[in-house]
Amino acid sequence: MANDYVQKLDALMARVNPTKPHGKAIEVKPFFGGAAGYLNWDIFISLTKVGLALKLSDEDRQRLFKAGDAKAMRYFPKAPIKKQYALMSDDYLTGPKRIKPWIEKSIGLVASSAAE
Question: Taking the model in full, what pTM does it have?
Answer without folding.
Answer: 0.90
